[in-house]
Protein 1
Amino acid sequence: MRSISISRGKGFSRRSTREFTQFLFIAKGSAAEVQSQLYVAFDQGYISQEKFDQLYSKSDEVARLISGFIQYLLAKTKTQATQQTQQTQETQQSK
């Protein structure tokens, strides 16, 4: 889960929503890596079924939250681009 936080932090320091979104995708991939490692830990007997279920559920929740945030940012970016296009067209038509 540490790499998820690090990726999100790196993305937050970027100046554009596009770059931030890219790092959120990386963070989501890190959540999938955590889930993969949980399977290994369970299969090797390092964690119980109960612990596996608990941690897997948390990592799944994190991945879903990241996905929701990505979708929000992409929709916001699309809306802003549409508004800018409309403003440009209105400006050109009024000349």
Protein 2
Amino acid sequence: MSDSNPIREAIAEAIQEHPVILFMKGTPDAPACGFSARTVAALQALDTKFAAVDILPDPRIRQELSAISQWPTVPQLFINGELIGGCDIVTEMYETGELASALGAEQQAADRLGS
């Protein structure tokens, strides 16, 4: 009997392959919930290149993602393989400048949002 779990393995591989990856409802161009939309907006305001995975097509994606991250809600942002958090944490980090630091983004990018 094999313990192989292709969905969990694909999620773990994607997290390792992409320096910045967002698991979300919908896509960056068409977020399917306000939390995903706000998280995308914070990343885009910092001109961040990121991979995105829509968890809606297959409920197993969300289930396996939560098993990996030990985080129950979506969206989930990973930077360099590490879970950063969901919408509230990402938004707070954006507002304090911590997100720009974590991403290695220029702080001026955060200032552009207010101009």
Protein 3
Amino acid sequence: MKKYTIIILLMTILLLPCSARASELFGTIWYKGKPLQNAEITIKDKKIKTNALGYYSIKLDPGTYTLGIKLPDGKIKEEKVDIFPQDTEKNLKLE
């Protein structure tokens, strides 16, 4: 019985790191009432772009991040976002 308890305990310890997984951050970015198309978004050291409908999606580990969104006039708009263990939706309306 003691042997099985030790085995179960070891398996639990070994499998704990596997439970931490990247979550998906996704959403739509609007700029002056229209979807922000092909906008470059910088998150940490990664760069992605919105699609023609202003939609974006990226896998990130849970934590707090700053999104750097490049606007059509070349300025960068920063938005803070908290990523949770479950997928996180972050829609933005920018002016």
